[in-house]
Structures are given as C-alpha cells and as structure tokens.
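Researcher: Good morning. I'm working through a list of sequences from a screen, and I'd like to move beyond sequence-only analysis. For each chain I'm collecting a predicted structure so we can compare shapes side by side. This is the next one on the list. No need for commentary yet; just the structure.
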Amino acid sequence: MTTKEALSVLIVGGYGTFGGRLAQLLADDRRLTLLIAGRSRAKAEAFCAALPAGAARTPVAFDREADVERQLREIAPDVVVDATGPFQLYAGDPYRVVRAAVALGIDYLDLSDGTDFVKGIKQFDDAARQRGVFALSGVSSFPALTAAVVRRLSADLAQVERIFAGIAPSPLVHVGTNVIRAIASYAGKPLALLRDGRAATAHALIDAMHFTIVPPGRLPLWRRRFTLVDAPDLQILPELWPGLRAIWTGVGTAPAIGHRAVSALAWAVRFRILPSLSPFAALMDRAARLLRWGEHRGGMFIAVHGMTIDGEKVERSWHLLAEADDGPFVPAMAAAAIIGNILTGHPPTPGARAAATDLELADYEALFAHKRIATGIRQTPPPGLPLYRRILGDAYASMPQPWQAMHDLDDKLVVEGVSRIERGEGLLSRLVGWIVGFPPAGNDVPVRVTFQLRDGREYWLRNFADDEFMTVQEEGRGREERLLCERFGPLKFAMALVLDGGRLQLVIRRCTVFGVPLPLALGPRINAHECVQDGRFHFNVAIAHPLTGPIVSYRGWLVPRQ
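Model: Good morning. Structure tokens for this chain:
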C-alpha cells in the first residue's frame, strides 16, 4: 500500500456534537481537506473559522433529505462521513447516503449506534466490493471500540462467555440532541440480547447494573448506575465470538436524579402508559442541559468473562477515564483512526459491514495519548493477594520496592522509624484527637507499626513513643468498590489509591460516622501520601476539619525491623 499525499473528507453534520469533534481531531493534518457540511452554510462557515490551523477546510451546504447523489457528485469527496443521526429515526430510505456514495465510488463511514441500521449496511457489500470502496457503519464507541477492546482482553482466552460494556458521560458535557432523540425513541421498549446462553429481551433504560470505572492507580469515577441501551454490539459481537452466553450495553449518566427520572418514564412506556418517550425528547434535552453538576469527568468500561485453555475462569475489565471535555472525542476517534490509516496506506478492505473488525485498540491508544484520557486493564485478583495489590492491580508494580515491602503483607510485619507529630491547639481539635487516640506532639519520635493480616483485613497498630492507636484497613464493597476503607473508631474513610510519579496519594471519596454517610463537605480533610526517599519508605498524613482546624499531622520514615 502507498501513502496518500492528499485526501478530501466530507463530514455530514460536521459542526455537530460528534462530527465537530471529528473535525477537531483531523484539523492539524495538512494532507487533509475537510468539507464541513450541514444544512446551515453559515454555521459551517463559523465552525471552519474556529478550527485550528492545519488542514484545509471548506464549508458546504448539504441536506441528506434532498438529492444526495447529486450533492455528492458535485462535492466529489474521497471519503464521506455521516455524523448526523439519530440513525434509529431515519425515515424513507435510511441508506440514501450509503447508496449514493457506493454508486459514485466514494468510501463511506458513519457514527451510527442504531442496531438495525448498522446490521443493515451489509446489503451493500456486493456493490461496494464491485466498486472497490468500503462502507463501514458503527464507526463509533459501539461497536468499533468495544470489539477492539474485547479482542485485547480475550487474546489468550479459549472462550469468551460474557461481555458487559457501558459509557458514563461527564454531567457537564451535553451528549447531543440527536443522542437524546435516539434514546427517547426506544426507552422502555424491549431489546433483543443474549442472557444465560439464550435469546432474550430486556427493557431499555430499565434493566440496570452498577459499575465503578477506575484504571489502576487513577482517581475513580463515582460509582454509577448503568441502564440498558440499544447498541449494535448486542447483535454483532455474538457473531464475532461464537459461544457467547451473555452481552449487555448500557449508559450511566449523572447526576443520578436525572438518570432515575428517565428510567421512571421508561417504566411508563414499559407498562404502556405512554406509547413512547419521543414526544418528550425536547423536554429531556432541556432537562439534560439543566441537570449539570458533579465531576467534570467521564468514562467507559468493557468487561469480559471467559475461560482459558486450561479451563480457568477469568474476569477482566478495561477502564477509560476522560477528563473535562475530552470524553466526547472518543466516539469520533474510530473515524479519525480509519482516516489516518488511509493516509498511511492501510485503508479498510472494500465491502460494506459493521466496523467491528477494522480497528485495534492500538489505533485508539495513539489518539488517547493526545487527550486527557487514561486507560487500564483489571483482572479479578487471585485469592490471598495483599490488599494494596488487589486495589491497585497492575499499577502496583510501578511503585518502588521499599514501598512494596510495606504492603506485601501475607501475615505479620513490624516496621520501625522516626516521626514528627504535630497536634491542633483548639479545644475541639484536642477532644477529637483524644477520642481517636492520636499521639501527642513531638520531634524525632520513635515509631513502630505492626501490620497484622486477619480475615482479609489489615490491622495497623501504630506506636509513637509508647502511645498507640489502631486502624483497620479493608477493600471497599458496593458504593466503596475499588476503594481502600480505613476505620478510626466510629469513623470510616473510603479512599482512592492514586499513583502520581512514584508517590501514592490517598484521596477521600466517602466518609461515614457509625455507618451513616457524611457529606464530604462536612467531613474531615485528610491529606495523605506515601513515597520512597533515600531508599526508605516515607509517610505524610495531615488531618483537619473546618470546625476544629488542624487535628493531627505525622510524617516520617519506616523500615522493616531486622
């Protein structure tokens, strides 16, 4: 294959939610001419003017409801990308763009997530092969990315039995009006899927599961509730992995109150109180624009359950975290990757099909590297693995050996060192310190910590110059999944283990008092980290509260007792 020096790409819906982001992903490549198309030429012109320098760009007026073949003949692009939608609601001839592109010998991509539309594109396979062009549908997170991830996760498995996937958009990013319209069209209606090895149905936006997205060593998303959505994966992935017994795809939007409200409306469709939520799509869109609070972060997960050639059961999951506005770029990355492959002389093979076999995860990873996107793989740990290894997964190995020596606990470990302790001066601060049992202030205080493993929990007995206090650490469950839970008397803190340049930061994500959840704004402030300096394990912990001020801080070093 030879590389291309120039390529013109027509993006229909090029100033929309995902078409616009595709244009941004391609904008710095001077080999490209981007034809930004939509019904409004004025909007296309404004969008082109805002793109960064690099690729040539031309605004184009394009109406997919008009004479598509005539428009494509006049524009004459090398590739056309349909980024409009909702594909579930296309009326008349939904494949008019596909049909015209194939007839004119133009390569075609779309960002459809509609199952019927994506599956139906194979009707153009013979015509596309005869014209020597490709027509790929579903060039998006579902199914292009999910299929690529499943291949990575199952590379050494003899059998893939279950696949679960979900997208969790940032609550501060609007997913797009067309996405809302698509969801409204099928909410509460039955979707065909595999369950327990049999064809089954489940109801969209009602059937639910919970999942915590957290690449190893990263700050997790808050645990989300995911509800079933229509995605091509439900029908296409079982064809790629024969013997699959279950598949499920969902969305986990935030804040939770909005997601619960849509689920409640979906129940009204389920019980035929309402025929459809489509008439409420505009209201749902406005509500989504108003319900905008929470962390400005999004994510995605794909989990695979399978079996090795030796008959061992394996559960693996791939996690993606996207910071701020970078999440909505992910659905557009498949098209960007394919266009990049065309430029380097590796275009998809001719034919019409769902885009489930045309990209690998490595194609995405090259694009992730240019965004604030972190990914990682987790596998169900074997029994008896130390607590911190279980929570950190593969990231554990990146920490220095003296740090690992403190946390590779299999029974009992005693370590010794020196610490500096400071205590708050206020009455409330001293009272809290006395209740918990924090040691008095001092410099160069001898410290000994005894770690004891019992029933999967770690008991940490800290001795500062003969003043002792104990905490208990364990792996979180439910809302505290993937977190380290530490108990100080009646207090329990659920903390994320976040790695940052060889340092472990412990970040509070949840706090309870006598088992009752406490709003983080009302809870104590804990700044805690561990690292290795001069070949020794160092710790630094500071605890304060808005009402009391500083309560205690202690920092120092430890080494195993000889």
